[in-house]
Amino acid sequence: MTTAQLGPALETSSDDASLARRIAQRDRGAFATLMRRYNRRLYRVARATLHDEAEAQDALQEAYLRAYRSIEQFRGEAALSTWLTRLVLNECLARLRRDARRQNVVPLVRSNTETAMASTPAPECEQPEKSAGVAQMRALLERKLDELPEHFRTVFVLRSVEELSVEETAQCLDIPPETVRTRHFRAKSLLREALAQEIDLAERDVFEFGGEHCDRTVANVLQLLGPA
Length: 228
Description:
- The protein is 76% helix and 0% strand.
- By secondary structure, the chain is mainly α.
- The chain folds into two domains: 10-110, Rna Polymerase Sigma Factor, Chain: A (Orthogonal Bundle), CATH 1.10.1740; 123-204, Winged helix-like DNA-binding domain superfamily/Winged helix DNA-binding domain (Arc Repressor Mutant, subunit A).
- The longest helix has 27 residues, at 177-203.
- The radius of gyration is 24 Å and the shape is elongated.
- The relative contact order is 0.08.
């Protein structure tokens, strides 16, 4: 990798270190900057782990509070984003363990994708039909992603959604890079298979013409024929 390619990464790393020092001095403005920088990535990790939007938001907030209180423990041995990701994952896993102890099973609650779509305003320039189509496709992908095992789901989100490298993902999840590659490949294969099955089912109903459509056409034709 060239120096030019390393530039943005080095700049972000240096800026993160500066933010960490300011947060350690209880600079809340710096902490707000940090949260805005990594909110999306960390929420997606929590959401992929917990299967529930509200629970993921709660876990993210709790992890942020822990980060603020323990920022002095950040030594810069890994990227700040990696340190934060581990805090979020630890909080999520602790919640799963608590639920498992209470119920003897880990509840996997389906996300309310319609609420998610409503909370994300579409650009005004988009046509309603296109916006609806994108929302439906995203909802389908989220639903199929929810059905993946957690260890596949988390790797897929970090690699394919957040576009982290294999090495960055391995550091975040504390697993070997080869495990990241294997799980990512398997996750994509399972998603392709699941989506293909949905398409196969949908193909059978393309240009469906039954029920009231059929009845109305028959009635109209018989009326046009006139009295028998």
